[in-house]
Amino acid sequence: MDQQFWDDMYSGSAQRFSGLPNDALVTEVTGMTPGQALDLGCGEGADAYWLAEHGWRVTAVDISQVALDRAAAGHPEIAWQRADITVTPLPARSFDLVSAHYFPIAHESDHATLRGLLETVAPGGTLLFVTHDPTEFPPREENSHDFDPYDFYQPSEIVALLGDEWTVEVEDRRDRNRPAAGHQIKDLVLRARRAG
Ligand SMILES: C[S@@+](CC[C@H](N)C(=O)[O-])C[C@H]1O[C@@H](n2cnc3c(N)ncnc32)[C@H](O)[C@@H]1O
Description:
Blueprint: H1 3-11, H2 23-29, E1 36-40, H3 46-53, E2 57-62, H4 65-71, E3 79-82, E4 95-101, H5 112-119, E5 121-132, H6 155-161, E6 166-174, E7 187-194
Parallel strand pairs: 1-2, 1-4, 2-3, 4-5
Antiparallel strand pairs: 5-7, 6-7
The chain binds S-adenosylmethionine.
S-adenosylmethionine binds next to strand 2.
């Protein structure tokens, strides 16, 4: 799933997603003291907008220029950045909140991309990582996209890779208020905090 894949997906419609912030973001971040936030795979920007509107200084990163052009039409105070995080390192220990919703990170034997993502969280900062529950997807041979969610890191695998300086605050499976692509697929929510 390279830039072309994602640009094609976004180009396929004038608006791909709802324009509303994700439920897990609102639930988990409401009440936190705002600081520097990284929205990884920001797409059309709804989560980044919500964070900025709630006092966070936001860097929003996506591989898709089409998505970023759409997102950057609002909230000029957000630092919009096009990058493929599998090849472009992000600044280490810089963000009080790193939020990744439905962000696909393919398994790697050295976990390099995932470790790079974890490294962006500042001391005392929070990682919020949310995926669709993979048990609710049809098997690869039965879906139209040749897509297998088990090719990508799931929250439980991330928990297994967190070192001693991390505390898992939330590891949950829950409903979303809005169905994903017409289906009520549950969210898997991981919120973890790095020691200060
Ligand atoms: C399923 S969408 C989710 C978008 C948004 N977070 C949301 O919840 O609506 C995944 C996003 O990750 C971006 N993405 C995928 N691989 C990426 C990579 N290697 N580096 C940066 N962004 C990537 C895609 O362009 C896409 O916008």
